[in-house]
Write a structure and sequence with these properties.
The structure is a single chain. It contains four helices and five strands, in the order βααβββαβα. The protein is of the alpha+beta class.
């Protein structure tokens, strides 16, 4: 990527051996989870045929990840199925604004193309302005805004 630091970096598809690093980063983004819960979830994701996690290594250390998967149910703003879906993307604070998230996203998009997808989608919380700005900056178009409700029965 033209915006990435001159320092060497790489992005590769994660395996089970990478799950602890992924969980350590993911808990910084998904605060309601524990590393242990996330390890269990990511073990399933990296083993799955319809999902992938990509790891960013910068300065010889794991510095970010992106999780993507296929969605067969309806995805807001799309016409086909399956749709490649960005489930989460994270770059450590000291490595942000250097093009690394864009490099991770490119790997996810290529993975989705390789799975036969012609559309790629994502989401973010309504109040997550940083995520909204990132999505718009890398070419996503806003499809819809919703507020979800639950009720105990």
């Amino acid at each position: 990527m033209e915006n990435c630091k001159e320092a060497l970096f790489s992005v590769y598809k994660a395996g089970r051996e990478d799950v602890p690093f992924i969980a350590q980063m993911a808990v910084k983004m998904w605060h309601a989870h524990t590393e242990e819960n996330l390890c269990d979830e990511f073990n399933e994701v990296v083993d799955g045929n319809e999902s992938a996690v990509f790891i960013l290594v910068a300065e010889k250390q794991p510095a970010g990840f992106a999780q993507c998967q296929l969605r067969h149910d309806y995805v807001e703003g799309t016409d086909g199925s399956p749709v490649g879906y960005l489930e989460g993307i994270f770059v450590e604070q000291e490595h942000r604004r250097q093009g690394y998230a864009k490099a991770l996203l490119a790997k996810c998009e290529q993975w989705a193309r390789d799975q036969g997808c012609t559309e790629f989608a994502s989401d973010c919380e309504l109040d997550n302005r940083n995520s909204l700005a990132f999505h718009l900056r890398v070419g996503f178009a806003e499809a819809n805004r919703i507020i979800c409700f639950t009720k105990q029965l």
